[in-house]
Amino acid sequence: MQALLLRAPYDRISERLAALAPALDVVVLEPDGGLTLNGAAFDPAGLKAEIWWLSLDAFGKRGGDYFPRLAGSPDARWVQTAFAGLDNPMFKPLAREGLTVTNSSAQAPAIAEYVTIHALSLLHPIAEQAAHQRAHAWTPVTFREVGQTRWLIVGFGNIGREIAQRARAFGAQVEAVRRSPAAEGLADTVSTLADLPQTLPEADVVVLACALNDETRNLADAAFFAAMKPGAILINIGRGGLVDEDALRAGLDRDQPAHAVLDVFQTEPLPAEAWFWDHPKVRVTPHASNRGELTGARGDELFLANLALYLRGEPMRNVTRAADIGAG
User: Fold this and answer.
1) Which of 14, 46, 91, 287 is the most buried (most CB within 10 A)?
2) Could you report the per-residue pLDDT of 294-310, keeping only the tens digit for each?
3) E-assigned strands of the chain?
4) Residue 61 — very low, low, confident or very high, per pLDDT cuts 50/70/90?
5) Residue 171 DSSP one-character state
């Protein structure tokens, strides 16, 4: 059995990989475009790789033609990706019969921390307290406790569950929005997208953590914002296409929402002239909520864990529905 890995990720895990799968032939795609096996040149005609690892390295300067090779490979049977969402149309060639695609949960803890920290910093009157300090005013500020708030998490996959875990640690009520209304242990209640007109008016924090597809494109539109509780917080770490940006701007004008924390946008990189940068109620980050220092190491461990399951013929973690691949 063969696997094809890029040099950089191979070097990170080579010792662990050899111990886990000593019989696996790991062909390495070198930075110069050549192939090697056990340090020796490998004839491209002999490449029949069944296992692939689409790490972030595949899209950098040293990625070469790794992705085109994967997209056109008749031998590929499983690919582990470094992405939580695979809605980008570039991934459409992976949505084919006979190829199992697993996405990544490695970034979920980092993204959950990003969401939680931003939400807490907006719920607590830090800005008001700082203003009193600047004025040298000994003025106490009464604040609402996190345990009094309700969080509506739209999309309850790996990221949504990590967010729920952190919010509940502070006593917040959590409602999960997902396809199935069945009970979910980390959520106090569960609803579906169809219930948003009833659930949005009750939510203090609304988190968009769902995939982008035909059902969710421009999900946060004028009606969505009109239904939001005045003073609520919107956090989008899903995809920019989930939000009608003009409708968001109008909503901010009437405090529906009162604050928006945006890590993703319709156009990325965000143009310098975009209105978001200078809006007093908006926080902008450059699609970087996943940039926790441990995200890469968790990604390596996930590949190895899923490889062990694959080799044993057992169900793998994070198998992605073909309908969600390239659907954006």
Assistant:
1) 91
2) 999 999 999 999 999 99
3) 2-6, 25-29, 35-37, 40-41, 51-54, 78-81, 100-102, 150-154, 173-177, 189-191, 205-208, 233-236, 259-262, 282-284
4) confident
5) T
Q: Coil, strand, or helix at residue 4?
A: strand
Rounded Cα distance between 181 and 155, Å, is 12
Q: How many Å apart are CA 181 and CA 291, to the nearest integer? A: 32
Per the annotation, the verdict on 179 as an active-site residue is: no
Secondary structure (3-state) at 189: strand
Q: What pLDDT is attached to residue 60? A: 81
The pLDDT tens digits for 269-283 are 999 999 999 999 999
Catalytic residue among 128, 145, 215, 268: 268
Q: Where in the chain is the domain with CATH 3.40.50.720?
A: 2-106+294-324, 108-284
- The domain 2-106+294-324 having CATH identifier 3.40.605.10: the answer here is no
The token duo for 199 is 């659930």
From 166, 178, 239, 259, the catalytic residue:
239
In this structure, whether the domain defined by 108-284 belongs to CATH 3.10.450.50 is answered with: no
Amino acid 62: pLDDT = 81
Does 268 participate in catalysis according to the annotation? yes
Annotated active-site residue in 287, 291, 298, 317: 287
